[in-house]
Structures are given as structure tokens and as C-alpha cells.
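agent: user wants the structure for Biphenyl-2,3-diol 1,2-dioxygenase from Halonotius aquaticus. delegating to structure tool.
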Amino acid sequence: MASHLGHVHVIVSDLDRAISFYTDLLGLSVTEQQANYAFLSFGDHHHDLALQARPEASSPPPNSRGLYHVAFELDTPAALRACYESLQERETEAQPVDHGISKSLYFDDPDGNGVELYIDTRDDNGEQWNGENTQFDPMAL
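agent: tool returned. relaying C-alpha cells verbatim.
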């Protein structure tokens, strides 16, 4: 029986660009790089994110089955705001969504892979998601 998610493997077109994007935005570190692969970690595991460069790969058509996005939980509202500011500097459009139990930023990485950055805003009362999806101002965090 599995105990946790081991890693996420993402196909990218430009390995150096993807490494720069994920290390700069999320503070991941490269633990190993071989040919068209790079392994990035937050520090506790060899890798949390595997990047594989396949320049010839096509993007899946819109509304197709498959992975919707990869989500990364941040520790503080300030960290979410800082990531939002970094995305703005990169001219990467991010959609801020307040789910009631979390505040999230949804955007695409440079290759069009869906990414979510979020903070958990639940209290200790076992609060459940009630389907709320409203916009919020990340700069007000």
C-alpha cells in the first residue's frame, strides 16, 4: 500500500527553461540532470518533480482526458502573494480562486502544463469544501 505521492513527471519542450521556471518560482533544487531529464526536489526526497524534455511532443487537445494540473501547497499567504508577483513579472497569467477552504492560483507553465499553487485556509473543525469558487485579490494577502 502506498504511503504518499512519490513525484510528478512532466513533459516539457525546453529543459533549461522548465528548470529555471520551477526552481525560481517554487524554490525547488536540481538533484540530478541526465540528457533530457532533470529531477527537482524540495529537499526531503531525491525528487518531487521530474522533468523530461521532448521538443517534438504535442500538447493534448483542450478538454481532453488526462492530468488537469499539478498542485503545490505553500506555507503562508505571503508566499502565495510572492509567487503571484513572480508570475506577474514573468507575464504569466494566473487565475486566483478562493475555494473557502483554500486560496489558489491556477496558471500554465511555459509548456502549457496546468499548475496550482495554494494555501490551505481550513480551520481545525474539519471544514469541508462546499463548492465555492470565487475570485480574490492575491495582492491583498
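agent: one observation worth passing along. Residues 68-141 form a domain with the 2,3-Dihydroxybiphenyl 1,2-Dioxygenase; domain 1 fold (CATH 3.10.180.10).
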